[in-house]
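Posting for a labmate who doesn't have an account.
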Amino acid sequence: MLVLNNQDVERLLSMKDCIEVIEEGYRELGAGLAANFPEGGRMDVQAPSPGKEPERCYIWGGLAGVIPKREIFALRIKSDIRYPERDINGVPTHKKFCIEPGTYCGLVFLFSTRTAEPLAVVNDGVIQHLRVAATSAVAAKYLARTDSETVGLIGSGGMARTHTLAFCAVLPIKRIKVFSTTPAHRSAFAMEMSDKTGIEVRAVDSPEEAVNGVDVLSSCTDSLSQVVKETWLEPGMHVTCVLSFEVERKAVEKADVVVRHLRGGAIGVKAAAAELDEHERVRRNLYQQYGSPLEERKELPTLADVVSGNVPGRTEKRQITYFHNVPGSGVQFAAVGARLLELAKKEGVGREIPTEWFLQDIRD
């Protein structure tokens, strides 16, 4: 069995690799030859957690997927302590950690569908950002205009970094504008990503300036409030997000083509009927204000429908298109995990531990 850390993943996996296998995975999913569990994407278990932070809780998150063509089953799990906090503008966000602030526990387990053998366990940090951005890139390939040259980013964290690389891999991007609430962060992002991509990346002072006149608008924040406004959307624009409520309901309704990531939504279970935390209050308020969450609109096509050719993507230049890249998908981890394992074996990367440690002679 192979153990791979984030440095191994970063060394082995390119964005091009991820986009290629994610697209293949969703084509298989659309043809009924791959599967997610749960079908709606993610399952969460929440329990009270003793500690000093108000409304602190324990969250276990999991999702699984299988791609028989790749002979891989993947299970991704997270173990977090979570509590709500407001940013410098008073917007509610989540703080998470494992053991202590600054450390996290997310793991991807890979199994062979040929032998049922446990093949690898992988830190999920780098894979997490790569697979989300690669999925946005696959959607952009089918939904954005093929001559799209400009990107407006809201957010300047890890997701914004991988989304920059992903959009540049599938579209002829020449300029990027980025806004985040912390000036130092957006300036550092612009300098770093300009060096990495070789194109103009400019930090701007307002979200309106970031999105004005762009071909692709991507929200990559951890905000629990709506950061993409209906008035920002222009004919021909492609819009995507990474969290459920980042885009105003009216903005979604303004789009001519709306494609969901998956059919359905995350499954959540609480161990105790404790007082609602900040996240839940915000979610319910948004639900009441803006109507049903997009995940419940099951009539909308999914990314797998579009990639497999079952439904069209963009059909004309002036259409506004929107990809709701929520929630996660086990097929993503199976696709990227299969390629990672292939590259790790080829390059001799990772630490081997005895497979026998994970086997037993007692039948369940």
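Reply:
Got it, the structure tokens are right above this. Residues 125-143 form the longest helix (19 residues).
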